[in-house]
Amino acid sequence: xxxxxxxxxxxxxxxxxxxxxxxxxxxxxxLPERGDIRIRSIDFDxxxxxxxxxxxxxxLHRFANYSHIIxxxxxxxxxxxxxxxxxxxxxxxxxxxxxxxxxxxxxxxxVSISHYCSESHQVDVLVESWDxxxxxxxxxxxxxxxxxxxxxxxxxxxxxxxxxxxQLDYAKDSERTGYLLSFASPNMFGSHWSSALQxxxxxxxxxxxxxxxxxxYRISSPWAMGFELEKHKEELREYQRxxxxxxxxxxxxxxxxxxxxxxxASTYSAQRLLLGLRLHEQxxxxxxxxxxxxxxxxxxxxxxxxYQWLQSDYQKLYQINxxxxxxxxxxxxxxxxxLARLTDWLGADANGWQLSSRLEKNWTIKPGSWLxxxxxxKQQWQSDEPSRRELSSHWLVVHHLTDQSSLAARFHLELGxxxxxxxxxxxxxxxxxxxxxxxxxxxxxxxxxSGEYRYYTPWSILRLFDVGFAGFVDAGRxxxxxxxxxxxxxxxxxxxxxxxxxxxxxxxxGTMVHLDLAKPLRSEPGLDSWQFRAMAKRRF
Length: 540
Known about the structure:
The chain has four helices and 29 strands. The chain has helices spanning 2-20, 59-67, 73-78, 90-102; strands spanning 22-24, 38-47, 106-117, 122-131, 135-144, 147-156, 165-172, 177-185, 194-202, 205-214, 223-240, 243-265, 269-285, 298-299, 302-311, 314-317, 327-330, 334-342, 352-366, 369-382, 388-402, 405-417, 425-427, 441-443, 445-461, 465-479, 493-503, 512-520, 531-537. Keywords: Membrane, Signal. Its main location: membrane. It is found in: Membrane.
């Protein structure tokens, strides 16, 4: 017995001596410059939706916390890009933090080193997370141009704390009504495979979606694989000056499968090669309301090869696209180039080629000012058909005046040639011109520019909605529509307005309610002198 007591005392003394050299670490700059530091332990600190110690909390917040299932530790564990015993990499800690923050059921995440043990050259890592409210009586709405659109239902974005999503909706918009049932898992059993199942029964047809994918979930991922099957049937409508001019039925069948490999990967850059197959069939049919013909049926089934080059240079910013939320913005180059072979033995209408490319790059102009850009290009060649081409470019400049105000300027350009009739660009309402009805202009070419003053107040409504204000001016034009008269889409549009922004900061959807009143700077028959817009979206 005495021997056992001595042995136990020795173990306790050894543990105490081992722990004595482990000190709190407040800054990673204090770590020694050596490459063999290991992760000794990983601790988790998951917080509920509301901090009940903050002033202004009442029974509603207490009930929300009581009825909410906090994200489970194993759910957080499954997203970690490191494990106990691994060699410490600060880049992996930062990448894990971004991955956790991208999960809609988390409002914020932080991955840091809590202790450093100088004798054993080990560290303790702390993973902190703050939950969003995930069980939502879902109410999305939009009203503009005299048209109301809404959806009601229920959505759970963190089912039993597992991160899985379940949703049931009833929706009505300007074109259809219907029911939607969907399930999605962003990380099945910690395998980094994601899945999505969706079924919709709409007034104009049934639709379903099945998708399973293991993406390049981290910059050093060695491979990726994906499969997607979709059938979509709906009634499409065409508009002229915001008024309906034609209807027809559309049926889309889509299947895509791909396999990707990493050609090169380092801490901050990667090059990848993907090979894939897609079956893409689009068919159109007349109905009782068809008055102005139909788009062309088409089959664009193809084999494709894609090259990706990307850099990882993220910064944590605020008040860019939202407010009062952390935004991870990548300032590295991101470029993809895809070459597809349209082939008749897969079902394509004719043999041909498709070339598409995407380029994203963001810059810090000066402290407090940023430029964000995104560009797309696509060209298609098929025998006995004209060459089709699309180019789009998006530019956003944000300048912070103070911690509570900023200026934002946006420019968007779309240039198309020989576009398919059902894919023409639309301008009006939520497509850039807030003082005009939906679908007011359309064409193969479009540009829209906006300037906006944003003010972020310290106000909060019941600690559920953060309040902001915006004043804006919009200008734009859509033109070159081969199926409508030039008079319908060749005039320059201007509009001014202002509104309120209500951010549901603690919601897993992160939506922002826009309440805008805007005035078109022109008058014509049928155009209201003021447009009221009420809608929910994710951007300011």
